[in-house]
Backbone:
C-alpha cells in the first residue's frame, strides 16, 4: 500500500495546472485513438472497399493481417523522429505535432476513392495513411504519459498516467460505436472519417495551451547554466552525467518484453476472434463489430479498475498478478476454442482477455524512472514502437500459418512466449525497484 493514501481523495492533491494538463491530454488522447482505431474496427468493411475482393478464407485472413500490421511497421522510424523532437525541443511540441498528423491522415481517407474507382492506388494510399497514423499515435501516447509522469509524484502519479490509457480506450470504444452505427444503419462511412478529422484538429489547437514539463525544463536549464558559466563548451558536456546516462540492455529488453503483451492480446481479441466469428458462425461485419464492442467495454472496465487500484496497490504487484493469471489461460485457450459451441462462448473468452490484458499501463512512471531524462522519450517511444512492429508481424502472420497447420494450438505457440516474457519483464523491474529502495516492503505478520 502507498503511505497516507486513504486520508484524502484521489485527485484532491492535484494543483489546478496539473488538472488542466490532465484534461487537455485526456481529450487529445481520446481524439487521437478515435481516429487511429476507426479504420481498425471498420476493417471488415473498408478492406473490401480499398483492396481487391477475395472469398478465400486464408487470403482474407492474410489481408486482415496486412491491414493491421501496416499501422505499426514504420513506428520505429516515428519513434526516432518524435523521440528526438521530444528529447530536444520538448514534450509539448511532440504532442501537438502528432495530433496534427492524425488529422491530415483522416482527411485524406475521408476523400479517398475506392479500389473500384482507382484500383491498387487506393490500396497504397490507405496503407500510407495507416502508417502515418500509427507513427503519430506512438508519439501521442508516449508523450502524454511522459508529460503526466514528469508533472506529478507518486502515488497520484500512477492513476493519472493510467487515465491517459483509459481515454485512449474510450476513443477506441467510440470509434467502435461509430463503426457499428455506420455498418448496421447504413450511414456513409466517410462521415466517420470527416468526424475524425474535425476532432483531431480540435485536439491540436487545445494542446497549444500546455506548458512544458518542469523536469525537462529544469534539466535543460542546468545544462545551459553550466555552459554559460564557462565550465564546459556547449559541444563538450561530459561533466554532466544526466546528459550521457544510458539504461542497461537488460532493462530495455525487459520493457520490450512487457510492451509486447498488449498488441498480442488486441489482435487476438478483435481481429483473430473476428475471423472466427465470420468463418465459423457466419457473422456479418456489423455483427462482428457489435460483439467486439462488448469486449471493448470489458477492456474499459478493466482499465478503470486498474486506475483505482494503482493508487493504493503498487503497480508492479498488479502487473505480476495479471501475468501469473494470464499464463495458464494461454495454455488452456486451444481447448476452449476447440470445444466452442456458440458465439457467446467466444465472447466470454474475448471479455476475459480484455479484462486481464497483459499491459504496462499503470507502471509506466516506474519504467520512465529507469530511463535518463534526455533519452526518456526516445527510449520509451522506440521500444514501444519496436514491440508493436514485432508483434504486428509475429502475431498476425504467426496465427494465420500456425493455426492453419496446428489448429487452435497454434495460438498457444505464439501467445505463451509473449506471456512468459511479460512475467520476466515484471520480475526485472521489481528487482530494480528493490535495489533503489522504491519497492514497498511487506509488513511482518501481526504488525500494524
Residues:
Amino acid at each position: 500500500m502507498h503511505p497516507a493514501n486513504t486520508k484524502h481523495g484521489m485527485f484532491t492533491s492535484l494543483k489546478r495546472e496539473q488538472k488542466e494538463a490532465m484534461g487537455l491530454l485526456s481529450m487529445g488522447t481520446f481524439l487521437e485513438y478515435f481516429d487511429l482505431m476507426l479504420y481498425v474496427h471498420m476493417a471488415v468493411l473498408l478492406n473490401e472497399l480499398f483492396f481487391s475482393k477475395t472469398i478465400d478464407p486464408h487470403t482474407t485472413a492474410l489481408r486482415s493481417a496486412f491491414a493491421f500490421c501496416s499501422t505499426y511497421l514504420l513506428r520505429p522510424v516515428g519513434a526516432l523522429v518524435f523521440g528526438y523532437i521530444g528529447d530536444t525541443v520538448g514534450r509539448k511540441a511532440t504532442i501537438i505535432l502528432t495530433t496534427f498528423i492524425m488529422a491530415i491522415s483522416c482527411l485524406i481517407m475521408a476523400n479517398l476513392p475506392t479500389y473500384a474507382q482507382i484500383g491498387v492506388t487506393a490500396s497504397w494510399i490507405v496503407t500510407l495513411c495507416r502508417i502515418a497514423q500509427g507513427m503519430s499515435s506512438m508519439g501521442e501516447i508516449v508523450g502524454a504519459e511522459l508529460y503526466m509522469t514528469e508533472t506529478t509524484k507518486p502515488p497520484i502519479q500512477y492513476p493519472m498516467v493510467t487515465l491517459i490509457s483509459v481515454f485512449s480506450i474510450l476513443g477506441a470504444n467510440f470509434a467502435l460505436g461509430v463503426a457499428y452505427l455506420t455498418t448496421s444503419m447504413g450511414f456513409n462511412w466517410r462521415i466517420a472519417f470527416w468526424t475524425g478529422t474535425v476532432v483531431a484538429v480540435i485536439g491540436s489547437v487545445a494542446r497549444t495551451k500546455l506548458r512544458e514539463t518542469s523536469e525537462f525544463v529544469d534539466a535543460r536549464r542546468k545544462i545551459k547554466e553550466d555552459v554559460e558559466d564557462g565550465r564546459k563548451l556547449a559541444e563538450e558536456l561530459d561533466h554532466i552525467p544526466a546528459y550521457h546516462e544510458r539504461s542497461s540492455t537488460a532493462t530495455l529488453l525487459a520493457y520490450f518484453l512487457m510492451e509486447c503483451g498488449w498488441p498480442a492480446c488486441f489482435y487476438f481479441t478483435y481481429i483473430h476472434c473476428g475471423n472466427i466469428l465470420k468463418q465459423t458462425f457466419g457473422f456479418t461485419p456489423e455483427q462482428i463489430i457489435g460483439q467486439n464492442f462488448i469486449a471493448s467495454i470489458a477492456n474499459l472496465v478493466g482499465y478503470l479498475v486498474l486506475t483505482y487500484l494503482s493508487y493504493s496497490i503498487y503497480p508492479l504487484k498488479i502487473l505480476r498478478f495479471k501475468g501469473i493469471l494470464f499464463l495458464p489461460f494461454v495454455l488452456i485457450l486451444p481447448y476452449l476454442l476447440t470445444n466452442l459451441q456458440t458465439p457467446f462462448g467466444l465472447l466470454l473468452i474475448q471479455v476475459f482477455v480484455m479484462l486481464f490484458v497483459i499491459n504496462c499501463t499503470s507502471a509506466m512512471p516506474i519504467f520512465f524512472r529507469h530511463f535518463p531524462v534526455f533519452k526518456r522519450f526516445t527510449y520509451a517511444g522506440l521500444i514501444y514502437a519496436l514491440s508493436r512492429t514485432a508483434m504486428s508481424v509475429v502475431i498476425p502472420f504467426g496465427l494465420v500459418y500456425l493455426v492453419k497447420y496446428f489448429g487452435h494450438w497454434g495460438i498457444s505457440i505464439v501467445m505463451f512466449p509473449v506471456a512468459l516474457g511479460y512475467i520476466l519483464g515484471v520480475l526485472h523491474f521489481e528487482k530494480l525497484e528493490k535495489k533503489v529502495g522504491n519497492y514497498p516492503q511487506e509488513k511482518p505478520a501481526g504488525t500494524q
User: Anything to note?
Assistant: The two ends are 13 Å apart (CA to CA). Residues 376-406 form the longest helix (31 residues). Confidence is low (pLDDT under 50) at residues 3-8.
